[in-house]
Amino acid sequence: MKFEVLSSELLSHLTTISHVLISKNSMPILDNFLFQVQPDKLTMTASDGDTTIVTSTAIENVTGEGSFAVPVKTLIDPIKEMPQQTLRFEVDDDNLEVFVHYQNGKYNFIAENAKEYPLPKPLSEDASRVEMPAQVLLSGIQSTFFATADDELRPVMNGIYFDIKSDRVVFVASDSKKLVRLVNTGVMPGFESSFILPKKPATLIKNSISKDMDNAVIQWDEKSASVTVGDYQITCRLIEGRFPRYEAVIPKNNVNHMIIDRQVFINAVRRISVFANSATNQIKFELDKNLLTISSQDMDYSHSGIETVTCTYDGTPMKIGFRAGFLIEILNTINADEVELRLSDPARAGLIVPVQNQENEDLLMLIMPMMLNEF
Predict the structure, then answer these.
(1) H/E segment holding residue 362
(2) pTM
(3) Separation between Cα atoms, residue 200 and residue 277, nearest integer Å
(4) 128-152 burial, b if ≥16 CB within 10 A, otherwise e?
């Protein structure tokens, strides 16, 4: 079996799929890439047993067809150090010895039998299917990923909830201290369903989507999901269980609204958070007519900070505490010039939304307040 492939194309695809790999596998075969050679393309697979990513690239001067598993480091590390060029692979079908010929030399190694490589089970015949622009899927993952939890007792919180409605798609994530809900009305599936995507495949999907990709195809059944974007297909086990009723925790009566420049807001929070207690990371907001005063203090080190910024606010004067790190994460994720903070009282959740949403999107961020220790 012989074939030729451009080194830059091979390295790009292998680097992307290698992100699924883990350092300690229960099955040694998973320390390999699975190569499947066909007359016009090379299909490459990487897996950790729960999540599998498959991609392909064009090859030339192909002689023979077949499959073999190649050690990850033995293959990818030397190619990283090569300038762009054509690589020629020669594989002995009998003993699976692989020779990789390049411009100034060659190296060889023994491959593993492809039959030992575990592949995910096909989805059930009644699997659901939704097609959407790749950038819609990317936006849904990027907007919600930071709010996912790491909770062993409630694994349903450890992923992104896809709430499929007939006339929209809703992406949700929450760790109980913050919640993100992104509604996209540009996708109309025509049916209702839902599933919880784990964080690792969500990261792989995010890293696989580029600006020039058109559509993403998502298929799922009760146990597994498959996402196809461009040259990549990610298959994974879903998180089992029922996601909490997220709409029930979003307050509907936050009548005090503050509008502020997002960059001015985040810069002020960053500066004042330097002086917050390292354990609580608490900052205090004092809202009065068209003024926001942000302050923090660390009694242990006798330092404090205070800053006043202008905003649009004519609600009830209020003092409320927030965790600075959560606010910074939220403000970093929102893609808008101005944001609106909606409050009810210091003991209830605040909502942060962009003043101007992206096309077909309705983004809402919820953040729980902190009990103030007056200083």
Answers:
(1) strand 361-367
(2) 0.93
(3) 32
(4) bebebbbbbbbbbbbbbbbbbbeee
